[in-house]
């Protein structure tokens, strides 16, 4: 069985939109699975089902989806999630380092 993510970065200082935007903290999870095989939506849906208090709601599924964004509340702060299926990465960002770190830990439980 192929691993869902080949790399999950540690939380580090990161602008909101990777290259621009507000200062905050985040990480990326990279997958070798592309397009409709990318695991991001399934992982996030599983996360949202187990943690309804986060209020994470993805936009409706589209067969050709890419550039998907959603927000959540976690550890007292806003957390933004974004994924691309063509480049196949998931980005999690928050203005709070603690929120990004604890969200990463909870998300990893759904990945592995």
What does this protein look like?
The protein is α+β, with helices and mostly antiparallel strands. Helix content is 23%, strand content 31%. It has helices spanning 40-50, 97-111, and strands spanning 7-8, 12-15, 23-30, 68-74, 77-84, 89-94. Strands 1, 2, 3, 4, 5 and 6 form a six-stranded antiparallel beta sheet that branches. The longest helix has 15 residues, at 97-111. It is globular, with a radius of gyration of 13 Å.
Q: What characterizes the major β-sheet? A: 6 strands, antiparallel
Going by helix content, strand content and strand pairing, the class is alpha+beta
- Percent of residues in β-strands: 25-35%
Taking Cα atoms only, what radius of gyration do you get, to the nearest Å? 13 Å
Shape verdict: globular
Summarize the amount of helix as a percent range.
10-25%
Distance between the termini: 12 Å
Reading the helices and strands in chain order gives: EEEHEEEH
Summarize the structure.
This protein is of the alpha+beta class and 112 residues long.
Walk me through the topology.
Blueprint: E1 7-8, E2 12-15, E3 23-30, H1 40-50, E4 68-74, E5 77-84, E6 89-94, H2 97-111
Antiparallel strand pairs: 1-3, 2-3, 3-6, 4-5, 5-6
């Amino acid at each position: 069985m192929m691993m869902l993510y080949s790399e999950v970065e540690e939380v580090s200082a990161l602008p909101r939109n990777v290259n621009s935007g507000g200062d905050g903290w985040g990480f990326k999870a990279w997958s070798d699975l592309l397009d409709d095989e990318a695991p991001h939506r399934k992982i996030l849906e599983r996360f949202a089902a187990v943690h309804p208090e986060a209020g994470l709601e993805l936009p409706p599924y589209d067969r050709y989806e890419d550039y998907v964004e959603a927000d959540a509340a976690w550890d007292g702060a806003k957390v933004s999630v974004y994924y691309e299926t063509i480049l196949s990465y998931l980005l999690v960002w928050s203005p709070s380092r603690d929120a990004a770190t604890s969200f990463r830990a909870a998300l990893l439980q759904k990945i592995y």
